[in-house]
Amino acid sequence: MIKSLVRHIHYRVERFLALDNWGEILLLALSVAGLAVANSAWGPGYFHLLHAPLGVGPATLSVEQWVNDLLMALFFLLVGLEIKREMVGGDLSTPSQVALPGIAALGGVLFPVLIYVAVNRGDAAALTGWATPAATDIAFALAALSAFGRGLPRSALLFLSSLAIFDDLAAILIIALFYSGGLSWPDLGWAAVALVTLLGMNRLGVRRLAPYLVVGLALWVAVLRSGVHATMAGVLLAMTIPMGSAEDEAAGRSPLHRLEGALHPVVYFGVLPLFGFANAGVSFQGLGWASLLDPVPLGIALGLFLGKQVGVFAFTLAAVRLGLAKLPAQVGWGALYGIAMLCGIGFTMSLFIAGLAFPEAGVAGEAKLGVFAGSLISALGGGLWLLAARRRA
After folding, report:
1. The whole model's pTM is what?
2. Any idea which of 164-168, 204-208, 210-214, 316-320 has the lowest mean pLDDT?
3. How far apart are CA 160 and CA 147, in angstroms?
């Protein structure tokens, strides 16, 4: 009786976690909740909680830092695992599969940055946020494509997900190169020792996950203390997790597959919603719709909405016309333009970069306002375009 009940509960939990878009719905709900609380009578308590110290001795960080430095390292670990899997034996394992989404992603990074820089030229402080509109939120973009692009072939989803993977790679490099603090060489040395240990375990054929996670935690501590952003530890750890044979991957037995499967519900039902609640809470005190016309939020909103769609579509068009790549099977130019527009949904990654670029609360609030506006307009514009294209078809 008890075993039957446990099996039934386990089945129900698996069904719940398997439902499309539940993670994105929870992320959106808690982000809206954070925004509402920040602008309510509970606002002072909300911000006090985020900045409250948590930990003991040298392991003391603010609640917000624990969320952004430790929990988001788990998100980047999952992203790194997905990138490795796709590049080693998945949809990005051959040059022909890489060409089109890689070229499109390059345009989707360059054009938003150029627009932001053009709007904020001459203001050195504002220019530190140049990378904010360069990122695409893969979860929300795919959710929007699933909702509005019904009837599109699987190749459309693969194109967007592959493009977003390259986009994530660009964001990872940008954070590592431009948004890390002063470097501590001794701590970088310890990080190198931890990384070499992880690589050595991989070469020796260690397949148990526990040793990787223990050394990975040491790597995270060293990277956090080194001045490089701590989320990079997640990416480095992901690159050392063994994949195993094709048969192991297909059967879900490889260490990478098992860790990815374990992390997915933790990240999408825990880490990202908490991140949304902690980072979407922008106080609109002193801000209004007119604030969107200030250079920082305007540059971000225009970069996400105009820069993303123009960059992705123009570079895709050029790649196809020059014979460097082919359009995804059964995807026309009209549908591809709608997909390019959805790439302007920056949200999670853009909020993250905005927090790194603008530590001051006032400017950070304006930057996040621009992220909200650009992402919302991109989602609505791309969704309506795809709906209209479906009716025309």
Report:
1. 0.80
2. 164-168
3. 14
